[in-house]
Fold:
Amino acid sequence: MRKILGVLALLPIASAGVLAHHGWGSYDASKTVTVQGPIEASRYTNPHATITVKAADKVWTITLAPVSRMQARGATAALVGVGKTVTAVGYASKVDPNEMRAERITVDGKTVEMR
Structure:
């Protein structure tokens, strides 16, 4: 009985993690978007790193890869740090017109694939 109660107590915590992670279906993969500008904010944490970029048209929130993938490909926290200029190519959100999911980024002449 204790085991069952323990498992039931953990369900809300496990569910929160699943709900926090979004699927890629909310992005319009039918056309690519390119955003270029300085990074105004950077969050190098899981489930995905994100950067805020001031482009010519507006400020974008750009979803990057999970931190482990970023590190494996040489995209350190310093590479996507505040003040760096980034070019991100990816897909705009169908839900939030100021958000996109990056397929690849280029910073300091280094191109990194996010998938």
